Amino acid sequence: MNTSLLARISFTTLALLLAFAPVFASASACPNLYRNLSFGSRGQDVIALQTFLIAEGDLAAGNNTGYFGRMTEAAVKSWQAKNGVVSSGTAATTGYGAVGPRTRAKIASVCGGGGGTVSANFSATPTSGAAPFGVSFSGSVPITLFGYYLQYGDGTTNSIECNPGSNSRCTFNFSHIYTNVGTYTVKLTEAAKPPVATLATVTITVTGATSNLSCTSDSQCPSSNYKCEAISGYGTSCAYTSSGQPVDPNCSSTSVITQGVCKLKEGRSCSTSADCTSGMLCHAGVCTNPIGKVCNGASEASEETKCGAGWRCVQDCGAPVSYQGEPAPGYHCMLNEQASKPRMCPQCLAGSSMIDTPAGNVRVKDLQKGMSVWTTDSDLHRISGIVEVTSKVSVSNHTVIRLTLSDGRNIFVSPGHPTVDGRTVGTLTVGDTYDGATVASAERVPYTEDATYDLLPSGDTGFYWADGILLGSTLKK
């Protein structure tokens, strides 16, 4: 066989091999996706994803901005369809246009990911005890194209998402409460990589009587990470003058929890939002106040950057009635999962607020027209009145103020709810004097009930006591 024929055969063989060889994206373009991404996401991992999509020909050059907008969403859809991941539906229903576990796994496959041994450090302490039993889990894992899961063995799971930064490994710390007696195998697994690899396990043994973490004081909770949150209770409230002096010098405010449940405080590790105190969301495994720092909303791009990844600049609710010359409501950073819900701005009380009546404390949602209620006269002396009007306003994605006074009284109330001295609750700041005490905190938190409530007592003022705090009524004309 002559050399020219051999050359033609070799060239043809090489062409066939190249035609049917698997195609891998260049190593420099392979993104390190340590979390799920969708419209509105921002960060270095979004830049890495966009760079990958540009290399794949699904996104035009120059669009690796770090913001997951409509162009990136369309590019993800194109890539998903041509790679057999998904080709119809929406990001919410099928994942079409979002980068979830299936898409992350496919990207890893295209990039030649998979295989190899993952070195994981994992420990738990303590590993045995009586219910309710709190365990702390910690460890470190290498940052790869895949995320990780911590499966507690009782049907709950934490997702471990690590920001790569400049490190090759990331550490994690989670707390979990076991409420039922049993033996649980906790697994640290690699996610989005079929078959799912179990990297490490630990056995937790829970003994003793089952508990639902009920409490009547903080001291009955498993640790200082918890607060006893009242479900029901009773107390004594006192009337004060506008200067903060008690109308009755012998009156002493008290508050007693008759039924409560232990909830994790802000900043503590959690599995779900139900683990956290009211108003907190379990975000990235930590109980987080979804209402963050102040932003000005003047420029969406700059303000979104100011709020940080996972947050959005959202305008606050204003006063119940606007007046000429009144400044527009301000803005606060809000977690995306809270800000993405429909929003209304009523100005009333949480349904669980306890109203002081001659017959004892009654939930505001249970009050009816004609019932007796404590109110005040124009000199702020406590007098008995009747409920003239009640209101109920349906809400969705509403934000309230968790107002706490220095003597321990606290209430969840809309920012625009009137005080007894002509202000609104949303204008109270730490250190202000109100109702015979000083404001210890006034945090904006999400409201989890489906309606807010208010009442109008008979008499000159329309004032009433809610959770021991004297307030005005939005129904007073």
Q: Topology of this structure?
A:
Elements: H1 3-20, H2 44-55, H3 70-82, H4 101-110, E1 121-125, E2 128-130, E3 133-142, E4 148-151, E5 157-160, E6 169-178, E7 182-190, E8 198-207, E9 214-215, E10 226-236, E11 254-264, E12 281-283, E13 286-288, E14 291-295, H5 300-307, E15 311-315, E16 331-335, H6 336-339, E17 349-350, E18 354-357, E19 360-363, E20 372-376, E21 382-394, E22 399-405, E23 410-413, E24 433-434, E25 437-446, E26 451-457, E27 464-466, E28 469-471
- Largest sheet features: 5 strands, mixed
Architecture per CATH nomenclature, i.e. the level-2 architecture of the domain at 349-471: Beta Complex
Work out the helicity level.
10-25%
Number of strands: 28
